[in-house]
Amino acid sequence: MARLTMKFGGTSVGSSEAIAQVVEIVREHQSDGHELALIVSAMSGVTDMLLDSATAAAAADEDACRAINDALRAKHAAAVDSLISAERARVAILAEVDGLLAAHIELCEAVRILGEVTPRITDALVSFGERLSSRVIAAAMQDAGLPAKQFDSQRLIVTDNQFQNADPLWQATEERINNGLRPDLAAGLMPVITGFIGATPDGTITTLGRGGSDFSAAIIAACLEADELIIWTDVDGVMTADPRLDQRARVLPYVSYQEIGELAFYGAKVLHPKTVQPIISRGIPLRVRNTFNPGHSGTLIGERTQASATVIKAVTGIRDVSMLTVSGRGMLGVPGIAGRTFLATAKAGASILMISQSSSEQSFCFTVIDPLAQSVKAAVETELQQEIQHQDIDSVDVLSDIVIITVVGSGMRGTPGVAGRVFSLLGERRINVLAIAQGSSECSISFIVAEDDLETAVAELHSLALETVENDRVNGVGSPY
Ligand code: ADP
Ligand code: ASP
Ligand code: MG
User: Which atom belonging to ligand 1 lies closest to the Cα atom of 214?
Assistant: First the structure.
């Protein structure tokens, strides 16, 4: 018997058919004797609808809020009607759904009166997605005879107050999970917990960022000391590229924590970038599997690196970024300019995705997301005002319509010539590389190209990854476990 934490994503719980499939998967794992804790996302599309309701409410568009509220009811009621056969249970769960939707419309009304929506209220508004789905799913499981019990994670995951991107406060969270979840697990119940949501110590709802249910599941797996975390999604596993970008993408049987960290940070949506954080130190294995193809063993993610000739395993890209370049002859040998630039960037609320410096020290560049580029430029110019006045620094330039492409694979470490191969390939395709950075872990190389070059660059580099995966298959290189 193992203790498993399983998370089901938006598509996996997106319709009554999909939820029925989830119930089957859960039943199978339970009948194998495993102890299960389940984390669920909102039904697919629901988080976006709730965000739209926030925007509509702030614009005083009552009709739009009402229409969204009605559509949410129809979506959840359809699932309840088809999944729950017992009349009493059906009436009870519909009453809960209606209660939450009444609270949603009330909150929209409050936003309308205020005339603006803050990150804090946005979090309260989007939390309804998981609060609705978890209730419907738990009820469907009970109807199928499983000992499911719904839990709201705002009572389990304690976070800081960075609304829309909160981080857990570990000690408090561990205590809540020990006291609030373990006794029910020990009593043989199967918790069905909302993903995505936490709350500050005083109980104000927060969220962990878009796609954050993966992170929720990892936090809970870590606190419960699970034997394995399984992320059930809508693809067979972690692939050599985003299958929507290149149809040739193939499933990787094994990826290390470090590799998935780089892939997720640089845009592979399959896992939230923080997912591995809570489980690395405890060595909890992570598996990514497909709800719609449960016969496939998926991708295993663990600590070891693969003993293969594998060099480039996967390629990924991030759109909607801008590159800022700080340059000037007077920068040479002047300490602290980069430090002050990055501090000003952080104060402007932007995270830096990639940094690169020219060897002459006469310029360096870094990338931030598009919507923040102009405010970061202004913040850096203010910080470096004196140097600009003295003409030590010429300018802070912003270049948009660019993308970051990242190739990942721990085999790069100690394999000379990988970067050379990557860049000569791009050169042959006449793709201009604007900046390059290698991660300190040496398991990824990122570079910037024009947005128009994204597809060609990904396709070319993806061919390298596919070659590698094929070599591993032929040579029988599998998981290091
Ligand atoms: P969920 O709702 O289950 O959390 P997401 O939509 O967040 O699912 O993530 C799964 C999606 O991630 C896939 O449908 C796929 O299109 C996308 N994706 C991007 N890059 C990759 C990759 N390297 N491997 C697998 N899927 C990827
Ligand atoms: N429902 C949230 C989102 O769509 C969280 C998640 O699904 O992981 O971002
Ligand atoms: Mg996701």
Answer: 4
Residue among 215, 216, 211, 261 nearest 238 (CA): 261
287 in a structural domain = no
Note whether 448 and 402 are within 8 A (CB).
Answer: yes
- Confirm whether pTM is higher than 0.70: yes
Looking at residue 156, which CATH number applies to its domain?
Answer: 3.40.1160.10
Are 214 and 345 members of one domain? no
User: What CA–CA distances, in Å, run from 72 to 53, 206, 339?
Assistant: 11, 21, 47
Ligand 2: residues with CB < 6 A are: 9-10, 41-42, 47, 129, 195-196, 210-213
The 10s digit of each residue's pLDDT in 238-294 is: 999 999 989 999 999 999 999 999 999 999 999 999 999 999 999 999 999 999 999
Token pair recorded at residue 409: 């694979």
Which of 298, 294, 290, 234 lies closest to 43, judged by CA? 234
Cα 204 to Cα 227: distance, rounded to the nearest angstrom: 31
Interacting residues of 95 by C-beta distance below 8 A, sequence separation 6+: none
Q: Are the CB atoms for 356 and 404 separated by under 8 Å?
A: no
Protein residue whose Cα sits closest to atom 8 of ligand 2: 211
Q: How far apart are CA 59 and CA 460, in angstroms?
A: 45
Same domain, residue pair 75 and 214: yes
Ligand 1 near 11 CB (within 6 A): yes
Q: What are the C-alpha distances in Å from 344 to residues 200, 356, 383, 435?
A: 27, 17, 7, 22
